[in-house]
Amino acid sequence: MAVFSAGAAREVITPPVGARLYGYTPDVISTCVNDDLTVTAIAFSQGENIGIIISATVCLIETPLSDEIRQKAAEAAGVPARQIILCCTHTHSGPCMSGNAGWGPVDRDYCDSIFIPQTLKAVKTAVNGLQPALAGVASVKSKVGINRRQLNKDNTVSLGQNPWGCYDPNMTVISFKSLSGEAIANIVHYGAHCTAAGKNTEITRDWAGAMIDRLDSLSGAVTAFLNGAEGDTGPRISNGLTVGNLDYVNELGAVAAGDVQRAYESIDGYGEVDFEFAAGAVNLPFAPVLPLEKAKSRLAVLDVENRINIAGRTAEYLESVVKAYETGLPQEKYFTYPQTVFKVGSVVFIPMPFEIFSEISLRLRAYSPFEHTLCLGCTNGNNGYLPSEDQFCRGGYEIDAFRTSGVLTLAENTDYNIILENLKLLEDFKCTE
Fold first, then answer.
1. What DSSP element (H or E) covers 132?
2. pTM
């Protein structure tokens, strides 16, 4: 049997002060650096199988840009692009790499001058540093996150904290060491928005930064944070909101650092693992197009001058629907995207180009034959929020965003379909647990 190997590298990707920050409105300009943003690449190989996971401390990367970066990373590593997974930690205090109506255009200068060159450098170093490795894994329960779809007395939903709501409490650490016991790299998986800093002007990795730093220090190796089901999960900060300031970043970061230390120290030994990947496609059905008269009536009462955040997205959506009726409605029945799932021992990594709701992560893990089934949100592109079907009746910000994602929007049972589609790929793996 071929030997499993791992390699890792990290580079700084901090944008210049004065650049736009992405996540709230297009007018937020950075004024200083609280902590450096980074990109971390972890490479795996076994025989002819090679795969690379890249974790970037940015909010989101639009799908065409993500595809471009993955292709360039693949060329740098000498592997097919499908074997590159590009994840975002979802800090709202970093540069704009996902252009959306209402949020401002992609900062292309930043991408070309800093992000892409530094990412390729990390990828090359990680691949060149591949060495025979052992792996260990452990999970703990963490209350860093909390459901953020706050249920109000008038039966509306707003962004805040919902103590009755669903979230995925599992924090998982996968650690890699050389055959002689020297640390190579770590991966932390957890799902929660990195918005504790709020609509601030400091560049920061948010609460996850302290968690990453703690595990770096404990292990002596670089740590990649892979955000999970953060679509309906915000940071559990003590002001009762989903946003705060740097004080709340430090407060929650200390909690996250303590939790990751518990997980790391509970790893019960390191052993040989296998690395495989399964590639295919995910097909998700579209919903019927919004009727023309409904689109016109909604557009008539909409303030189209206020194109900030969700208002700008909604205006663009309604205008696109009206235009599509004039020029010809699209005929596609499914939204299809390429998918590659990695398996490292008993751990499977499932990329999802959405901000997925936590129930999706919990259900997929429950149905999977692998205990450590980790859904990676905000990964390999950005197609907006993906709610669980039960939440559509309540409405709210994420539901509004889902329903305005394009002339063709996904069906409300997309959660069910994306689970089934990915379970099919898991069938390609032999269960070794």
1. strand 131-141
2. 0.96
